[in-house]
Specification:
103 residues; alpha/beta
């Protein structure tokens, strides 16, 4: 559903099944915004954000964690979106982080 929403807003999306796959793909892509699940096989979403923050090329990229469970304490993400997500919340994040930042 998140991909459908982002595509409908005119965003190009890239979906990865694991954090490790996403990290490997980030060598070739420079996203303007990332939504990351907290619970992932292998490296979890909190650890993924730490990897992103340690990469000078990506360290300023907005990253929002998502989960059906509580927000993790002390994460380095830019925010948290509870699942099931509210379309208006995601829309506001995209407007603020992608479209307003790109103007």
């Amino acid at each position: 559903m998140l991909t459908v929403l982002l595509n409908s807003l005119g965003c190009e999306t890239l979906v990865s099944p694991t954090a490790e796959d996403a990290l490997a793909r980030l060598d070739r892509f420079e996203p303007r915004l990332m939504f990351v699940a907290v619970r992932l096989p292998g490296i979890d979403g909190v650890q993924f954000v730490e990897h992103v923050r340690s990469d000078s090329r990506l360290s300023r990229t907005p990253v929002y964690l998502m989960s059906a469970f509580d927000e993790p304490a002390f994460h380095a993400g830019d925010g948290f979106v509870p699942k099931p997500f509210d379309v208006d919340v995601v829309y506001d994040i995209v407007q603020r982080e992608v479209f307003a930042a790109g103007s």
